[in-house]
Amino acid sequence: MEYLRQTMNGAELSKFLTLPMTLQNRRVQVIVLPDEDNIQEKPNGKLKLGFMPGPPLPDSFFDPLPEEDLQAWGL
């Protein structure tokens, strides 16, 4: 598998990606790996979505969050 590994200044990288403030003024390593192995295609060329089966969501899943949780998320 081919990959790219590059050390660069976080300020340069922040032009392309959103970096945490703690990384913006430091040297960082960037490793780029192909993700194409994870793509499954149907014979007609359309992507096959890989949703996992699971239990149905309870109706309470869609209830509004309590005020305490909203404040924790800054909402």
The span between the termini is: 43 Å
Radius of gyration equals 21 Å
The unreliable regions are: none
Separate helix tally: 3
**Sheet bearing the most strands, described?**
2 strands, antiparallel
Identify the quaternary structure here.
single chain
The structural class is: alpha+beta
Strand-residue fraction?
15-25%
| Tally of strands | 2
As a percent range, the share of helical residues equals: 10-25%
What is the topology, as strand order, of the major beta sheet? Answer: 1-2
Write down the overall mean pLDDT.
Answer: 81
| SSE sequence, one letter per element | EHHEH
What general outline do the C-alpha atoms trace?
A: flat
In a few lines, what is going on in this structure?
The chain is built from three helices and two strands.
Structure explained in plain terms:
The chain has helices spanning 10-13, 21-24, 67-72, and strands spanning 4-9, 27-32. 19% of the residues lie in helices and 16% in strands. 0% of the residues are buried. It has a two-stranded antiparallel ribbon with strand order 1-2. It has a domain at 1-34. The model has no long low-confidence stretch (mean pLDDT 81). The termini are far apart.
Question: Which structural traits does this protein have?
Answer:
single chain; 75 residues; alpha+beta; two-stranded antiparallel ribbon; 19% helix
Secondary-structure blueprint:
Layout lengths: L3 E6 H4 L7 H4 L2 E6 L34 H6 L3
Antiparallel strand pairs: 1-2
